[in-house]
Amino acid sequence: MSGLLLIVVIVIIVLILIWIFNSRTTMGNYQMTNTQNINIVDFAFEPPQLTINRNTRVVWTNTGSAHTVTSDAGLFDSGTLMTGQQFVQFFNNPGVYTYHCRIHPFMHGVINVQ
Ligand SMILES: [Cu+2]
Description:
Blueprint: H1 2-32, E1 35-41, E2 44-46, E3 49-52, E4 56-62, E5 70-71, E6 86-91, E7 95-100, E8 108-113
Parallel strand pairs: 1-4, 3-8
Antiparallel strand pairs: 1-2, 4-6, 5-7, 7-8
This protein binds copper (II) ion (CU).
């Protein structure tokens, strides 16, 4: 009888641990869904400077001719974006991330991650 009780208690503890683990995972995913948007309009990134919290993803949307979103430090590169195409980059660590367009080197942008 006490053996059966022990098994039931262990099963309940395991189920509680699984529930805790799953809820933490869900919270982690929820934090990752913070999104900020930058539009590429004519020959500029709008806004050219953006301050975000860490664990945020930035989505660039190209509304014009061919452009790229290329990290000055080589951390990321969208490749050529045609009209309507998007590029997504996650920023998980604080810092200053400067970037440019490879096709038009005079196009610059900055992401400040807090
Ligand atoms: Cu460009």
